[in-house]
From TrEMBL:
SMART domains listed in its UniProt record: A1pp
Transmembrane segments: none
Gene3D superfamilies noted in UniProt: Leucine Aminopeptidase, subunit E, domain 1
Pfam families linked: Macro
Domain Macro: 1-175
Name of the protein in question: Macro domain-containing protein
Length: 179
């Protein structure tokens, strides 16, 4: 576990649908109508109410975030965000991925949510290089905490061990720098 200002930052290897937090973040697509990967897992675990709410929302631009309840999952809410499809790193992917994390934190604050879990957005189907994506993810979250130091716990939930070890390395470097 790491501490950054008032927030505990955890890196966990596992299935985000099992997290008992105020909000789990979904790596969705612009339609918000479900898909594979973590999107598929969240819709399967949460049940049809999530898709019903998503249909009413009617989509989400890349880098923005929308919120629904979490249905049958132990968490209270799902924050659906859309990361960029990685092309070559020169099509604004960095800013869009940063915005996806930052706007998810912003939406969590609007709902006064104190604990949140993020997957590694865009690093699956959307092909984002894992190390760069992890650096962007942790920077966006820590930048938000710099601005609004209210959240109690941010969990980075990684499905694979290699991604887990990568995030550990990133935070070891970042937070050691801060000491
Ligand atoms: N818990 C945590 N992480 C998970 C889970 C899970 N249950 N399932 C998959 N992951 C991880 C993947 O290993 C990957 O590292 O989530 C990360 C994001 O991968 P994707 O789910 O493929 O998401 P992304 O790359 O952002 O692509 C989004 O995929 O599922 C579709 O509808 C979605 O079109 C959208 C696209």
């Amino acid at each position: 576990m790491y501490v950054y200002k008032k927030a505990k930052l955890n890196i966990i290897q596992g299935d985000i649908t099992k997290m008992e937090v105020d909000a789990v973040v979904n790596a969705a697509n612009n339609t918000l109508l479900g898909g594979g990967g973590v999107d598929g897992a969240i819709h399967r675990a949460g049940g049809p109410t999530i898709l019903e709410q998503c249909k009413k929302i009617g989509g989400c631009p890349t880098g923005e975030a929308r919120i629904t309840t979490a249905g049958n999952m132990p968490s209270k809410y799902v924050i659906h965000t859309v990361g960029p499809v990685y092309k070559d790193g020169r099509k604004g992917e960095t800013k869009l991925l940063y915005n996806a994390y930052y706007n998810s934190m912003k939406l969590a604050k609007e709902y006064n949510l104190k604990t949140i879990a993020f997957p590694a957005i865009s690093t699956g189907v959307y092909n984002y290089p894992k190390l760069e994506a992890g650096q962007i993810a942790t920077k966006a979250v820590m930048d938000f905490i710099d601005k609004e130091d209210y959240i109690e716990e941010v969990n980075f939930v990684l499905f694979s061990e290699d991604n887990y070890l990568l995030y550990k390395k990133i935070l070891d470097e970042k937070l050691n720098e801060l000491e």
